[in-house]
């Protein structure tokens, strides 16, 4: 992140990966998120993946970067990961007004809008493929070769780059203290980019990401939804993506929907549903994605390291989420997987061949998976309409395993070349 910006000891607002990697033999020193790591558990730290809630000390907004805790290493003698986000350069964003966390507008003064649903344009072909930019700008890399249709950088931009016609998806971050950037910055970007997709939060279920209780998220979503729809009725408001589909994460979403309907007397309006598709451990103070804020349990699904690239699990997660949508009367809404990929380093067994097989297999899955009962009818009953690979480029100290471009040379990596061969012109 810019030198003038500092991340507070609480989760920051950066791009997204939600994994606390397990270590092997040495202990890494985190830079202010969570307890000090033990020899078998690296606590998450502000990385090039999206975490949020940072303290801005200049007029340059802090980039949004993903972080996760990686699992303990598996092979004796193998080097432990060197991920130490604080030591790496984070994505640079264009200067805008200071993005201090805001105090939400007094909710009772907001008059609910009438129906504002706008038909979401149906994606096709390359329009479905997206990437996350965790380091630098889209214009730093040969993205024209990738054949992508959209991208995000975990932030709000009034004048985003559109290389090759790629569409930019905006993201507002939330926390217990409010949202960021401020309302004025959001309004300006919405006016300048009518019809945009707006993600409200990033992994609010992860304590080193947006770290927001279900009840607080419902309040902030209400405020931001109405703010955006007043400025641009054609915008598409996208719920913040939880890190993965699991009973624990669905229970977290249930509390959001219940709180919203109880407080505002109507179902929560969502134009586009959103979920991340990681396969990570759910255990308090362990590697993976920990326990969602406000949830009184110590365990969820206890995935192992080798489950991380299991496409059968990914398919089951997406189908389960679609079934959950249908049960809540939301089947006829599109679904985006706004972040997924491989976060484990090659030292954990995730070399190029294995990562490429997962990436190409995920493309096959997202392009072809359908279900006549819960799929999106407007899209031939497909389960997923858009997906976003993590990432275009991330520093070595973040999660570089899935890099499509080399952050130093700017050239496509072998994985990027495989991406281009699959999705490009």
Overall description:
- With 425 residues, the chain is of the alpha/beta class.
- It has one domain (107-423): Alpha-Beta Barrel (TIM Barrel).
- 21% of the residues lie in helices and 11% in strands.
- The protein contains six helices and twelve strands.
- It has helices at 183-192, 214-231, 247-264, 311-327, 352-368, 414-423; strands at residues 19-21, 68-69, 129-132, 150-152, 167-168, 170-175, 178-180, 197-202, 236-241, 273-275, 335-340, 386-389.
- The strands form three sheets. Strands 5-4-3-12-11-10 form a six-stranded parallel sheet, with helices on one face. It has a four-stranded mixed sheet with strand order 7-6-8-9, with helices on one face. Strands 1-2 form a two-stranded parallel ribbon.
- A hairpin with a 2-residue loop joins strand 6 and strand 7.
- Helix 2 crosses helix 3 (247-264) and helix 5 (352-368) packs parallel to helix 6.
- The longest helix is centred in the middle third of the chain and has 18 residues, at 214-231.
- It is globular, with a radius of gyration of 19 Å.
- The model is unreliable at 1-18, 23-66 and 74-112 (pLDDT under 50).
**CATH architecture annotation name:** Alpha-Beta Barrel
Shape: globular
- What structural category arises from helix and sheet content? alpha/beta
Q: CATH homologous superfamily name?
A: Glycosidases
Q: State the major sheet.
A: 6 strands, parallel
Strands of the biggest beta sheet: in what spatial order?
A: 5-4-3-12-11-10
CATH class: Alpha Beta
The end-to-end distance, rounded to whole angstroms, is: 33 Å
Count of extended strands: 12
Compressed to H and E, one letter per element, the order equals EEEEEEEHEHEHEHEHEH
Which fold does the CATH topology refer to?
TIM Barrel
Mean pLDDT: 80
Approximate strand percentage: 5-15%
Number of helical segments with 4 or more residues = 6
Whole-number count of domains: 1
The radius of gyration is 19 Å
Low-confidence stretches: 1-18, 23-66, 74-112
How much helix, percentage-wise, in residues?
A: 10-25%
